C-alpha cells in the first residue's frame, strides 16, 4: 500500500522533475502527430495524391503506432521504462529527419511509420512511468502532464506550420515548406534524449526485478521520510507477492481481468473514433471547405492548438477534484451535441465559417477536458503491476487502431457522403461513448495503485478463475 504521507516540497520537486522530463515525450507525440495537419494539402499537391493516397500518407503513422504499442509493454517490462524511452527518443529523431528529406510518397510513408513506432511506444510507457512515481492524491494531475505536453506540441507545430506557410508562396510551400515542419521535430527529440539521463527507473519495475535496494533509493527521492518509503516498499512487495510473476497476453485475458480490459480498450477506442483526429489531421482542409483561404485556415488551426492547451490545463485542475468518470460523462455529452451541430452547419451550401470555428473549438475543448486527458490516466491506473505493461499495450492498441480508421477513411467519407453526414456519424459515436462510460467506467480518484487493485480484483492470485471478483 502506498504511504498516505504526502511528499514534502523537496520530494515533490523530484516527482515534478521526473514527470516533466518524461512528458517531453508527450510533446514529441503532439508535435510529430500534428505535423501532418499543416502539411497535408501541400504534400497532396507535391506528390499528386488522391483522397485515398492522402489518407494513406496521413494514417501510415498509425501503422507505426500500432507496432510501437505491440512491443512497448513487453519490452518495458523486460528492460525497464527508462531504457525504452531512451530508444524512443532516437526513433523520433531518425523518423523526423526521414520525413523532411523524403523524395517521394513511399519514403515519406516509411519515415512516418518509424515516427509512429516512437509515438505508440511513448503513449504506452510514459503514463505508466509517471503513475508509478506519483503520489495517489496527485496521480491524475501528474499523469495528465504527458497529455498537456502533447497539446503544447500540437500548438507549437500548428503555429510553426502557419508561420512557414505565410513566409513564402504556395509553390514554395508545395516544394519545400512542408519539409521544414517535419525537420523541426529533431530538436525536441534531442532534448528528450538528453533529459532522460536525469531521471531514475520506475521503483515498481526495479522492485519487481528483485533490485530492492535500488527501488528503495528511488522511493526515498519521492517520499518524505525513510519510514514512509520503506512502508511503501513493503506494500508494493506484498501486492506483487499476490500478483505472481511477469504476465503475458494469455494472463491478461484471464477472466478476472476481462472487465477492466474492456474498460481500458473501450475508453481508448472512443477517444479516437469520436472524430478528434479528423480535426487534428485535416483541420485546414475542413476550414477551406467552409470557404476560408489557406492563411485563414492555418490561423484557425492555431486556435485549435491554443484551445487544446487551455482545456487540458482545466482538466488537470479538475481531474483529482471531480474525478475521472464525471469528466468523461460531461465530455461525451457535450461532444455529442457539438458534433451534431457541426453536421448541421455543413448542410448549408455555404457554411458559416465563424460559427463552424466556434463549434469546433467547443468540441475540441470538451474532448481535451475529458477523453483527451482522462484516457491515459485510466489506462495507467486500472491494471495490476504485473500485467500493467501488457494490458496498457492492448488498450493503447485500440487507441491507435481507432486513430487509423479515422485518419485513413475521413477524406474518403467526406468525398463519398459529405462533411455533414460524416460529423453526424461522429456525434452518434460520442453518444455511444457516453453510454459506455455510464455503464462500465469506475471512479479511481484519490486511491493508490494498490488500493485500486484491491478494489477491482481483491487479494487473490492471478491463477484464480475470477468467479468471485470484487465488483468494479
Can you walk through the features of this model?
The protein has 472 residues and is mainly alpha-helical. The chain contains 20 helices and no strands. 79% of the residues lie in helices and 0% in strands. Helix 10 packs across helix 11. It is globular and about 65 Å long. The two termini are 19 Å apart. The model is unreliable at 1-5 and 460-472 (pLDDT under 50).
- Could you spell the SSE succession in H and E letters? HHHHHHHHHHHHHHHHHHHH
Show unreliable segments.
1-5, 460-472
Largest sheet: none
What is the typical, i.e. mean, pLDDT? 82
Number of extended strands = 0
State Rg: 22 Å
Provide a concise account of the structure shown.
Helices cover 79% and strands 0% of the residues.
Keywords for this entry:
disordered C terminus; 0% strand; 472 residues; globular; disordered N terminus
SSE layout and pairing:
Elements: H1 9-34, H2 40-46, H3 51-79, H4 81-101, H5 105-131, H6 139-167, H7 170-183, H8 186-195, H9 203-208, H10 212-222, H11 226-243, H12 249-252, H13 258-273, H14 276-289, H15 294-318, H16 324-345, H17 353-369, H18 371-381, H19 385-440, H20 449-457
Helix pairs in contact: 1-4, 1-5, 1-6, 1-8, 2-7, 3-4, 3-5, 3-19, 4-5, 4-7, 4-8, 5-6, 5-18, 5-19, 6-7, 6-15, 6-18, 10-11, 13-18, 13-19, 14-15, 14-19, 15-17, 16-17, 16-18, 16-19, 17-18
